Amino acid sequence: MIENRPMATFVSHTVLILGVALIVFPIWVMVVAASHDALRLTQVPLPLLPGNQFWINLKLLFSGKGFSAPIHLTLLNSLAMALMISVGKIVISIISAFAIVYFKFRFRMFFFWMIFLTLMLPVEVRILPTYEVIANFGMLDTYAGLSIPLIASATATFMFRQTFMTIPDELMEASRIDGASPMRFFFDVVIPMSRTNIAALFVILFIFGWNQYLWPLLVTTDPDMYTVVMSIKQMLESGESEPMWHLIMMTALVAMLPPILVVIFMQKIFVKGLTDSEK
Amino acid sequence: MHKRVHYNTSYLPYLLVAPQITITLLFFIWPAVQALYQSFLLEDAFGLSTEFVWFDNFAELYDSENYLNSFTRTAFFSVSVAALSMGFALFFAALADRVIKGSHTYRTLLIIPYAVAPVLAGTLWLFLFNPTLGIVPYFLDIVSINWNHKLNSGQAMSLVIIAAAWKQVSYNFLFFVAAMHSIPKSLIEAAAIDGAGPLHRFRTIIFPLISPTTFFLLVVNIIYAFFDTFGIIHAITSGGPGNSTEILVYKVFNDGFVGLDLGGSAAQSVILMFIVILLTVVQFKYVERKVEY
Amino acid sequence: MSTINMQQLKKSYQDTEVIHGINIDIEEGEFIVLVGPSGCGKSTLLRMVAGLESITSGEVKIDDKVVNDLEPKDRGISMVFQNYALYPHMTVYDNMAYGLKLMKMPKDEIDKRVQDVAKLLQIQDYLQRRPSKLSGGQRQRVAMGRAIVRDPKVFLFDEPLSNLDAKLRVQMRMQIKTLQQKLAVTTIYVTHDQVEAMTMADRLVVLNNGIAAQIGTPMEIYDDPKDQFVAGFIGSPAMNFLDCEVCDESIKIGQQSIATPTHVTQRGKIVLGIRPEHFNQSVSDLQGTVQMIEKLGSNVLLYLKMENSEQPVVIQCDGQLDAKIGAVYPFSFNTEKLYFFDTNTQQRIY
């Protein structure tokens, strides 16, 4: 800040606090709702302050009574899917970026543009035919079916490509003189030097994977394969009666907690990775 | 584009790109080709026979008022989401850029929506705006506004826009902050010495300098609104009331998986593909200037 | 101790030839410096010996064995890079030990070698530090250490001192030279700095546009340059070149002239070369106007303009000299030290 204007600073803070409050308000209301019982949530106006039913609701949720899929199972499914997508994307992107940057081979550019093309084909655009491919492979209701069609990644490949371009050429040459094979160089130098990028990408992709909705909705029919994010929709549609808001909000809370915690605790790396990767 | 120095191994690079290429072929290129092919087919109601109908499916879409409406609706929805979300983010980024104390706390809280799944975001806003119970309709009622997005299509559209914009605020905020951060301090100081006040500085220096970011975000936000908001709409309105919140992506899903109109759905997919390609090209035209691919 | 032979070495990128058939024979333990302006191909040549750059045609032999198709690691070489190329995520110790580990050398043997070399280079105190925590000179020594620890047959240096400040560069120059003499390892050293080249080399290879313009000891090249390029490149400050015309009696430089030396038999246009340190101030058959004065302390450089002559003449004078800009300054050449070059081929004639 250039000039010292206490009044302006005070106003800035006030407005910022209001803005942040507005953004956090839905989350707050969710947490509040998750801490009241079903009865209280049918009375207008709804509470704005937390009740004392939080742990009871949590216990109720994990007891799994009355749900098509027990929450610990859906959480596990979400975790498996998110990890497979994020780790899978990182692995296949880092090795293809390594090939494209460090090797001279036929069709190199062709492969590069092919990977680039995936950027233009989000799953939403090709849902039906992709669904058919998965069905033909018998991959419906499997973790593989949930994750593999999502793990090709142009963005991640580009990001690694860019990272590798900043590694001095001489390091590769020094490693050749030291007697390192291409893969040794990859494991001993390239990967350690890309650690921050890998971590940043992991945060972004973990959230991407965890929050998948349309795709799991299509490829899972077995309740045992449901993910926690998609289970919310089933709860919203529970019959004719008014939904059980205290449990829905508790489920929503549980479902969004892992990615929120990841973002908050890896904030620095995440913010840097996000704003760098898109440039 | 690549290194000056290279390895010259014969098979290794192929092995390294193989997984990515295989997945791309199987789950990206092949389905895209399928979609293209299916968009030329007409399947009868029982799925017993198919007929190659050239561009009939597209012609039908072109004649379908329903589809054209969905098109304009999507455009309206995307632009509204982008404008609302970016406006809010820019305003708060400018404020956060001013203050030193607490900016970390503000940022931490503001990035939370990024981590929330679209369908969960939809659920939260649905709960807030629940016509019978919701806290917001309760207050709106006090000022004599009757809120019922289940019946009122304008209100339904507003709600999905708000929910979608809310989720995207984090992303926009982070980029605006980064862009403002990269403006050389000396530039701002020079302007301050020249006597420009904070508002004037923002208008004449900061805003023009972050315009590349603004443009980039505009494209990203539109892509987001087009493709990543399925969950929000699915949770809040399921496209209703009527078709008033049925955007293109939602319609592809609805016609294909619910209505089982494969040819029509495929034709819509193809059109969407072209839109993504167009947007990606625009995006990369911009990115190109900053990065050499 | 090894010999290196390069025979008719050529290198092309696509259709452009950048190294045009180079022959160099290097003896055991010799310190060879490849010197030339940027883009002359000196680094490419070095990298061809290292195996980092493929050889288009010709042969590189180390100890009489053709190494063209050997991987760098199998050639028995070590290389020190301009930017040192230290692995930033490894400690100094690991940087030095990395190559040995890949050789599958036993751990205690690695440790012994690393410790010995660290002692030799006086870097024992920061073996556990990362390169980013070291100064430029320290990094340079670590890079040397990594090269030495492999106990190679040949050292290759690619402008290893150009990232250091002037003072440190002079220090390191001597250290490298002393170390090389102590270890007696055949060395090829690339630099664009002719002072570095002169002070360090047993023999110099002056490269120009992918051709070895001259090979010889520093003094041979200084005293007896083969062509105008070598003459101008080696020696500091650089040799003066004056376009002149040789007549029977005199050599005309602009409107002034000197007597034609008896051994100069060619007539007509010619390029005369004279080093700034080879002027006489006691005799004065020539004169020029002082344009610029550079006081270096121990001596003074005068930039003179001779009438009707384009090129300024640089004269190295005694440090006490008191000259004024615009003044007319008389001088004469040390006629023993005149060089003559052909105007077209730029080859040295006399």
Question: What's this model, at a glance?
Answer:
The complex is a heterotrimer of chains A (279), B (293) and C (350). By secondary structure, chain A is mainly alpha-helical.
How are strands sequenced across the largest beta sheet of chain B?
1-2
Indicate the CATH architecture of the largest domain in chain A. Orthogonal Bundle
**The CATH architecture of chain B:** Orthogonal Bundle
Largest interface: A-B, 105 and 102 residues
As for the CATH topology of the largest domain in chain A, it is MetI-like fold
Strand content of chain A: under 5%
What structural class is derived from the secondary structure elements of chain B? Answer: mainly alpha
- Report Rg of chain B: 24 Å
CATH superfamily of the largest domain in chain A: MetI-like
Number of strands of chain B: 2
Count of domains of chain A: 2
CATH superfamily heading of chain B = MetI-like
User: Per the principal axes of the C-alpha atoms, what is the gross shape of chain B?
Assistant: globular
The number of helices of chain A is 14
Mean pLDDT of chain A: 86
Which overall shape of chain A is indicated by the principal axes computed on the Cα atoms? Answer: globular
Write down the CATH class of the largest domain in chain A.
Mainly Alpha
- CATH third-tier fold name of chain B: MetI-like fold
Give the arrangement of secondary structure elements.
The complex is a heterotrimer of chains A (279), B (293) and C (350).
Chain A (H helix, E strand, L loop, with lengths): L5 H28 L20 H10 L7 H32 L5 H11 L8 H10 L6 H5 L6 H12 L3 H9 L4 H12 L1 H16 L3 H6 L8 H9 L8 H21 L1 H11 L2
Helix pairs in contact in A: 1-13, 2-13, 3-7, 3-10, 10-13, 10-14, 12-13
Chain B lengths: L11 H27 L2 E3 L6 E3 L3 H8 L1 H34 L4 H8 L1 H4 L2 H11 L6 H8 L10 H29 L3 H9 L4 H12 L1 H17 L2 H7 L11 H11 L3 H29 L3
Chain C lengths: L3 E10 L2 E11 L4 E5 L6 H9 L6 E6 L2 E2 L10 E4 L11 H11 L4 H15 L14 H14 L4 E5 L7 H18 L2 E6 L2 H7 L2 E6 L2 E6 L1 H6 L4 H6 L6 E7 L3 E4 L2 E4 L8 E7 L4 E2 L5 E10 L3 E7 L7 E6 L9 E6 L5 E3 L9
Helix pairs in contact in C: 2-3, 2-4, 3-4
Report on this model:
The complex is a heterotrimer of chains A (279), B (293) and C (350). Chain A is an all-alpha fold and 279 residues long. Chain A folds into two domains: 6-63, no CATH class; 71-277, MetI-like fold, CATH 1.10.3720.10. Chain A has helices at 6-33, 54-63, 71-102, 108-118, 127-136, 143-147, 154-165, 169-177, 182-193, 195-210, 214-219, 228-236, 245-265, 267-277. The longest helix of chain A has 32 residues, at 71-102. The radius of gyration of chain A is 24 Å and the shape is globular. Chain B is mainly α. Chain B has one domain: MetI-like (MetI-like fold, Orthogonal Bundle), CATH 1.10.3720.10. Chain B has helices at 12-38, 56-63, 65-98, 103-110, 112-115, 118-128, 135-142, 153-181, 185-193, 198-209, 211-227, 230-236, 248-258, 262-290; strands spanning 41-43, 50-52. Chain B has a two-stranded antiparallel ribbon with strand order 1-2. In chain B, helix 8 packs antiparallel against helix 11 (211-227) and helix 11 packs antiparallel against helix 14. The termini of chain B are close together. The model of chain B is unreliable at 289-293 (pLDDT under 50). Chain C is α+β, with helices and mostly antiparallel strands and 350 residues long. Chain C has two domains: 4-233, Rossmann fold (3-Layer(aba) Sandwich); 240-341, OB fold (Dihydrolipoamide Acetyltransferase, E2P). Chain C contains eight helices and 20 strands. Chain C has helices spanning 42-50, 92-102, 107-121, 136-149, 166-183, 194-200, 218-223, 228-233, and strands at 4-13, 16-26, 31-35, 57-62, 65-66, 77-80, 154-158, 186-191, 203-208, 211-216, 240-246, 250-253, 256-259, 268-274, 279-280, 286-295, 299-305, 313-318, 328-333, 339-341. A six-stranded mixed beta sheet of chain C has the order 6-7-8-3-9-10, with helices on both faces. In chain C, strands 13-12-11-14-20 form a five-stranded antiparallel beta sheet. Chain C starts with a strand and ends in a 9-residue tail after the last strand. In chain C, 38% of the residues are buried. The mean pLDDT of chain C is 90. Chains in contact: A-B, A-C. At the A-B interface, helix 1, helix 3, helix 4, helix 5 and helix 7 of A face helix 1, helix 3, helix 4, helix 5 and helix 6 of B.
